[in-house]
Amino acid sequence: MNLYDNNNRCRQTHNHEIVGSTKMAEECEDRHNHRFAAVSGMAIPLPDGNHVHELFTNTDFFNNHYHHIEGRSGPGIPVGEGKHVHFISARTSVDDGHCHMFVFASLIEDPSV
Questions:
Q1: pLDDT score recorded for residue 14
Q2: What is the pTM of this model?
Q3: Does the pLDDT at position 102 exceed 90?
Q4: Which of 47, 75, 87, 102 is geometrically suited to a Cys-Cys bond with 22, CB 3.0 to 4.6 A?
Q5: pLDDT band at 6 (very low <50, low <70, confident <90, very high)
Q6: How far apart are CA 20 and CA 22, in angstroms?
Q7: 84 beta partners
Q8: pLDDT tens profile 12-54
Q9: Per-domain residue ranges for the chain?
């Protein structure tokens, strides 16, 4: 996959849908998780020819709070037929006195093709 144009500038090639849930946080009656859905940023080329994506979004609301999610995916992981996904593992912002870990894989880059 060539992520550069003829002038060696990075070009947008694709992005990924992201859907997930955070891991549980807190104890007792406040134990909960959050859901989120987003679209990744543009492909960021790596020296080895692979690429990563950045993600910036918010979770849903629960008990009067939400969390900000930001992170960078790992490199593309081939899944066959020229398609790939990305693995992401990070933690949310600290809000309402706690944060959540989250781990997920992106959806394939263009499900219609």
A1: 87
A2: 0.78
A3: no
A4: 102
A5: low
A6: 7
A7: 78
A8: 678 999 988 888 887 777 888 999 999 999 999 999 999 999 9
A9: 17-105
Show the tokens assigned to 15: 């992005």
Structure tokens at 37: 């859905």
According to DSSP, the residues that pair with 35 across neighbouring strands are 21
CA-nearest of 3, 6, 23 to 15 is 3
Which residues pair with residue 45 across a beta bridge? Answer: 51
Whole-angstrom Cα distance, residue 113 to residue 93? Answer: 35
Token pair in block for residue 101: 């870990």
